[in-house]
Design a protein that fits this description.
Layout: H1 2-13, H2 21-50, H3 58-74, H4 80-83, H5 90-97, H6 100-106, H7 115-125, E1 130-135, H8 140-148, E2 153-159, H9 162-173, E3 182-186
Parallel strand pairs: 1-2, 2-3
Length: about 200
């Protein structure tokens, strides 16, 4: 309040012709920015007081989120269902963004076909292990991105044509896979006459 009175006095005492508008304006903008930052911080604290789940320790919150993710996965719903949690509040968004292994699990999910989606999810996963799901309908760029990150794969499901499987075989031959727990490779061979 004293700062506002200062600006009121400044505006009322200086004639319009000599008013140092640019100085007062920059000071006001700076004060508004500070106030908005403080306001957001106070609102987060108020939300924490009002909502008991926000006061749980991060380890417990992680367990709850993983349970929710597993439940959603068993219901055959996509990751988009639990990703909405990040829109509930700042606390949930921060919690989800810090769960790198969660993002690694979906970075190459068949629910996200676009290569740009995999790139964004990999950014969120940081160095966490990834699960790779490739089928014959994925764009080649996404397939190449998956091969690039094969060394950090925890699981690989590769269901594609023979050419794609050969790329995978060459990539497997060139590197160690210390984190790999499971691998499934599937293909279909059709004759050119259509006999199957």
């Amino acid at each position: 309040a004293p700062r506002l009175r200062y600006f009121d006095e400044l505006i009322s005492t200086i004639p319009n012709t000599t008013f140092p508008g640019h100085v007062a304006e920059s000071q006001l903008i700076e004060d508004i920015d500070t106030f908005q930052t403080s306001r957001a911080s106070f609102c987060r604290r108020l939300n924490t007081l009002r909502c008991p789940i926000l006061r749980l320790p991060p380890e417990i919150m992680h367990l709850i989120v993983y349970a929710l993710v597993d439940l959603v996965s068993h219901e055959y719903l996509g990751p988009q269902e639990w990703m909405h949690l990040g829109r509930v509040c700042h606390h949930f968004r921060t919690l989800l963004l810090d769960m790198h292994s969660l993002w690694g699990r979906i970075a190459f999910s068949h629910k996200f076909r676009a290569p740009i989606a995999a790139e964004r999810l990999l950014e969120r996963a940081q160095d966490a292990p990834v699960s790779i799901e490739i089928d014959s309908n994925v764009p080649e760029k996404r397939e190449l991105l998956a091969l690039e990150h094969l060394g950090r794969a925890q699981s690989v499901t590769w269901s594609a044509n023979a050419t794609s499987l050969m790329k995978l075989a060459r990539a497997l031959d060139k590197q160690d896979l210390p984190l790999l727990n499971s691998m499934k490779m599937l293909t279909s061979f059709y004759s050119s006459s259509g006999d199957g």
